């Protein structure tokens, strides 16, 4: 019975706090007031993800930043922010966010791979190759890592690039989702 009274008291206080002076309290207003006052990290991340999937990246970024203000230990949110920065050509910010995600989640393969790709875009090939090789040490059949290793080596070590392309083509051959990349490699 005490829990019920506490919940009721909190509900009344939320309604009072959310109402403007002289405002009529309708049942729908009560729900809106409660929803406004129950912002959680999870709700911010969920909304951010929803906008991210809808390709409304500016709005998604706002929700992700709000979630990180509430809890900075969210590697997936740092990863998604990095993706947004990467798409916007803000590579230094993307590097920062991918690095945070990696530091917060040991073994974060996608973050290592994407960090390697951003570093390659900036022509930091040795650093890029380090991250791509790390991914391949964990997932030797990772096709995007194999392909991007070959691209990086093509720009830096042409003698090793041929073997890297061969590794990629052997694994990707016969995979319809990889045909465009196999054709480029050939």
Characteristics of this structure?
186 residues; single chain; 78% helix; 0% strand; mainly alpha; 11 helices
Which structural class best describes the helix and strand composition?
Answer: mainly alpha
The residue fraction in helices comes out at: over 70%
Question: Termini, distance in Å?
Answer: 73 Å
Give a quick account of the main beta sheet: strands, pairing sense, barrel closure.
none
Q: Quote the beta fraction.
A: under 5%
- Please count the helical segments: 11
How many whole angstroms does the radius of gyration measure? 24 Å
Overall pLDDT confidence: 85
Secondary-structure element string: HHHHHHHHHHH
Overview of the structural elements:
- The chain has 186 residues and is mainly α.
- It has eleven helices and no strands.
- It has helices at 2-18, 27-37, 41-53, 57-70, 75-87, 91-104, 109-121, 125-138, 143-156, 158-172, 179-185.
- α9 (143-156) packs antiparallel against α10.
- It starts with a helix and ends with a helix.
- The relative contact order is 0.06.
- The mean pLDDT is 85.
């Amino acid at each position: 019975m005490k829990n019920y009274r506490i919940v009721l008291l909190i509900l009344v206080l939320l309604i009072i706090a959310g109402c403007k002076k002289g405002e009529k309290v309708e049942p729908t207003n009560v729900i809106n007031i409660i929803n406004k006052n129950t912002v959680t990290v999870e709700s911010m991340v969920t909304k951010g993800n929803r906008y991210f999937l809808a390709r409304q990246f500016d709005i998604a970024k706002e929700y992700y930043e709000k979630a990180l203000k509430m809890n900075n230990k969210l590697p997936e949110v740092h990863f998604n922010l990095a993706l947004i920065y990467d798409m916007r050509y803000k590579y230094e910010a993307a590097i920062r966010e991918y690095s945070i995600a990696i530091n917060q989640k040991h073994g974060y393969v996608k973050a290592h791979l994407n960090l390697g790709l951003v570093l390659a875009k900036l022509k930091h090939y040795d650093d890029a190759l380090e991250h791509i090789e790390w991914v391949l040490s964990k997932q030797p059949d990772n096709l995007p890592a194999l392909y991007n290793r070959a691209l990086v080596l093509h720009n830096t070590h042409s003698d090793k690039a041929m073997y890297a392309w061969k590794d990629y083509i052997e694994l990707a051959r016969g995979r319809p989702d990889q045909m465009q990349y196999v054709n480029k490699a050939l």
